């Protein structure tokens, strides 16, 4: 009993003095263990990736580090080894220390898998295991850390090794030149050599090539490159079509790489093939872009599930060997895309990426650069509509088949590209920007969980910019909000939510969209942005944002109070005072977020603002033209408009703009007619207002175009479409005339320069004649 009391007392004392510290130490220890476990998992994953990219034993090679210039290849790390380029790593030692025959053996071991003399065959095999292959850094495919998948027997002799052999051992060099000149031909495309071993269908080609080998040996000793011909390309095409030859595919990839780096060859980095004929260039591009994916599909088929997920057997030796070809081909396509300007060739090149995407999922570095390149074409204002659509199809395909990390990378790159591509907005670029917004909105619905997180982060960032502009209201801080990129960002997110949160889409999916939770924050940010600077100078921006919210309200059946924002425009000083006449052109509100100061207080600007207010008010009210509560809903708007019309008729102070007054009177009449129409219909119903289902179903079967206000809106849309068409044609005609005038000015300027040059030549000739006479 006494012992138990002592234990209880000791326990309480421990809890009071030491328990808190013990628990904290345990938490710290648990966190350290957790971090260590995560670190071990990361290290294990990296080792697996290194083994995948570099082959077995890659990590063991990295452990040996030597930066001494005289270090042997066996003592160097993989990174140090590949930084050496064509430099000879294991230099031959003086002849006094080693027998001459041993030097010959080590030099011959570097020749790779070439035909050697029968007398030295056994000696080459015995000593070849100690030599290290040499690969040019320029030939290493993009995204790979080393060429460890290539066996040393498949590598040719480097150029520097050949020169060193001629200098250190001229007798052996002469022997090789007489008996095996092919052995001295260094191979700058050694990274694709192992593919030849997998091509079992090339036996007949090798047999046909045997009688001609002696003739080729003499030519190869003198030639640094080969002229590519259409016959050669046609031969490769036939081999890939009939037998899916990997050797032909390897040659096509090498030639395609030469075409992608055309006119970039020099003495240090010579190209394997030279291409001078435009027809050959076209043929090799078409053959590579169309046939290489077919060959890859034959040897490493892509399996796709019903959900769109793809699977490729990446564990076998064939894929590891073909990975060199895939990465080299993808890198060449990326390089080629930066040089193309023809629309048809650009479309073909971008289309060729789609069947290649499943193979590139394993190579994240190449994939990252590919996404960046494709997004650049998708968002460039100079790109044609065909190029934009083709680039978007590549991004969509990558989003469907990729994992979460790939999808997130595509979404972030697409949003950044959209923001950058919308910096310049005018009549020529607005169509391409709208195409980007409408196409990119589809990507956020492919994975709504990921789409929600990325959209939430972007909308939150927009809200932070708005808050900073409100809090720090000085030194033009509002310009962080009042710019095209901010406006297009808000409009884009309204496109995304309108696309995926509509009742029809939710009915098809059978569940409520996760993105629906973002409607409220987006509406609040947009309403705050449009009221940040409530001056007449930024009325166009207000109209831009009202259109975004109208789209969102129409698609999601969400009520957004937009009438007050429009009535504030009518109540402004700009619209109350009489306008002054002006000869300015009408302002295009579709491509402007800020009005020039010269437009303020002018009749042309007031007419344009009045048209926008009438149009947007009608579009807003027609959304609820079938609602059972429309009479009560429209009453405040009718009262406000009638009050404004009454004040505008006052003598001396009112607005004498008869065009605006007539438009508002007509709108008020249509609203009253629609309210009377709804009152007549709801007088016949038998349900009470608390019956929510019946209230929502009121006039749902009636098309909104058949209501009085709906018929008015339809007629106004038709008139605006015709007016816009006429204005667009006039703008194009004006652009055409301006271009012709610029061409004429350029021709006249060139003519004046040529005349001046001819006069100068005549003066020089006269001076020469005078000097001769003297």
From TrEMBL:
Pfam families: Noc2. GO terms for biological process: ribosomal large subunit biogenesis. The keyword Metal-binding does not apply. Residues 25-77, 90-164, 198-227, 723-774 are annotated as: Disordered. Residues 198-208, 741-774 have a biased composition (Acidic residues). Coiled coil: none annotated. Its main location: nucleus. One of its GO terms (cellular component) is nucleolus. It is found in: Nucleus. Keywords: Nucleus. Residues 37-64, 723-740 have a biased composition (Basic and acidic residues). PANTHER family: NUCLEOLAR COMPLEX 2 AND RAD4-RELATED (PTHR12687), NUCLEOLAR COMPLEX PROTEIN 2 HOMOLOG (PTHR12687:SF4). Belongs to the NOC2 family. This is Noc2-domain-containing protein. It comes from Trichocladium antarcticum.
């Amino acid at each position: 009993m006494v012992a138990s009391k002592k234990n209880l007392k000791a326990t309480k004392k421990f809890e009071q003095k030491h328990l808190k510290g013990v628990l904290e130490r345990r938490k710290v220890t648990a966190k350290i263990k957790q971090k260590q476990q995560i670190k071990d998992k990361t290290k294990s994953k990296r080792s697996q990736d290194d083994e995948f990219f570099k082959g077995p034993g890659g990590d063991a090679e990295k452990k040996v580090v030597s930066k001494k210039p005289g270090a042997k290849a066996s003592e160097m790390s993989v990174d140090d080894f590949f930084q050496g380029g064509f430099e000879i790593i294991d230099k031959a030692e003086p002849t006094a220390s080693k027998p001459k025959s041993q030097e010959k053996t080590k030099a011959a071991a570097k020749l790779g898998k070439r035909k050697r003399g029968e007398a030295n065959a056994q000696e080459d095999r015995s000593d070849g295991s100690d030599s290290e292959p040499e690969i040019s850094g320029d030939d290493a495919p993009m995204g790979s850390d080393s060429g460890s998948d290539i066996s040393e027997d498949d590598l040719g002799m480097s150029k520097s090794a050949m020169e060193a052999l001629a200098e250190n051992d001229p007798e052996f060099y002469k022997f090789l030149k007489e008996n095996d000149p092919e052995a001295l031909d260094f191979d700058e495309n050694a990274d694709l050599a192992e593919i030849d071993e997998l091509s079992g269908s090339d036996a007949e080609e090798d047999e046909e090539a045997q009688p001609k080998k002696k003739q080729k040996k003499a030519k190869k000793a003198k030639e640094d490159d080969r002229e590519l011909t259409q016959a050669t390309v046609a031969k490769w095409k036939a081999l890939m079509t009939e037998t899916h030859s990997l050797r032909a595919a390897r040659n096509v990839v090498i030639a395609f790489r030469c075409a992608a780096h055309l006119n970039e060859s020099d003495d240090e980095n010579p190209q394997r093939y030279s291409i001078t004929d435009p027809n050959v260039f076209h043929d090799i591009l078409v053959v590579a872009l169309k046939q290489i994916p077919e060959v890859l599909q034959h040897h490493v088929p892509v399996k796709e599930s019903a959900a769109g997920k793809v699977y490729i057997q990446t564990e076998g030796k064939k894929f590891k060997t073909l990975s060199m070809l895939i990465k080299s081909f993808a890198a060449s396509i990326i390089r080629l895309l930066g040089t193309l300007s023809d629309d048809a060739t650009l479309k073909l090149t971008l289309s060729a990426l789609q069947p290649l995407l499943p193979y590139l999922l394993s190579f994240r570095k190449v994939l990252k650069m590919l996404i960046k390149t494709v997004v650049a074409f998708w968002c460039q204002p100079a790109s044609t509509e065909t190029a934009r659509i083709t680039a978007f199809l590549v991004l969509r395909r990558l989003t469907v088949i990729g994992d979460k990390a790939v999808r997130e990378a595509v979404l972030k790159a697409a949003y950044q590209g959209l923001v950058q591509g919308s910096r310049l907005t005018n009549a020529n670029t607005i169509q391409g920007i709208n195409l980007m917004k409408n196409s990119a909105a589809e990507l956020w619905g492919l994975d709504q969980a990921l789409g929600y997180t990325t959209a939430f982060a972007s909308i939150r960032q927009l809200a932070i910019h708005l808050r900073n502009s409100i809090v720090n209201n000085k030194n033009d801080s509002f310009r962080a909000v009042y710019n095209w990129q901010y406006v297009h960002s808000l409009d884009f997110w309204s496109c995304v939510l309108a696309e995926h949160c509509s009742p029809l889409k939710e009915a098809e999916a059978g569940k409520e969209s996760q993105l629906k939770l973002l409607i409220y924050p987006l509406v609040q940010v947009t309403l705050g942005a449009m009221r940040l600077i409530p001056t007449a100078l930024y009325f166009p921006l207000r109209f831009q944002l009202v259109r975004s919210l109208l789209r969102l309200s129409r698609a999601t059946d969400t009520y957004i109070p937009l009438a007050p924002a429009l009535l504030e425009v009518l109540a402004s000083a700009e619209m109350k005072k009489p306008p002054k006449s002006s000869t300015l052109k009408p302002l295009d509100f579709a491509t402007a977020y800020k009005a020039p100061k010269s437009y303020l207080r002018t009749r042309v600007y007031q007419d344009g603002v009045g048209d926008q207010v009438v149009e947007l008010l009608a579009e807003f009210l027609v959304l609820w033209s079938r609602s059972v509560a429309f009479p009560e809903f429209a009453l405040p708007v009718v009262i406000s408009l009638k009050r404004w019309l009454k004040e505008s008729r006052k003598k001396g102070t009112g607005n004498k703009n008869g065009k605006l007054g007539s438009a508002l009177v007509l709108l008020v009449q249509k609203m009253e007619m629609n309210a009377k129409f709804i009152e007549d219909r709801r007088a016949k119903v038998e349900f009470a207002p608390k019956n929510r289902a019946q209230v929502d179903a009121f006039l749902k079967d009636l098309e909104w175009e058949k209501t009085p206000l709906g018929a008015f809106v339809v007629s106004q849309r038709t008139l605006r479409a015709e007016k816009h068409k006429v204005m667009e044609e006039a703008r194009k005609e004006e652009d055409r005339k301006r271009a012709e005038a610029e061409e004429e000015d350029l021709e006249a300027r060139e003519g004046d320069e040529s005349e001046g040059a001819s006069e100068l030549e005549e003066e020089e000739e006269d001076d020469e004649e005078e000097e001769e006479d003297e």
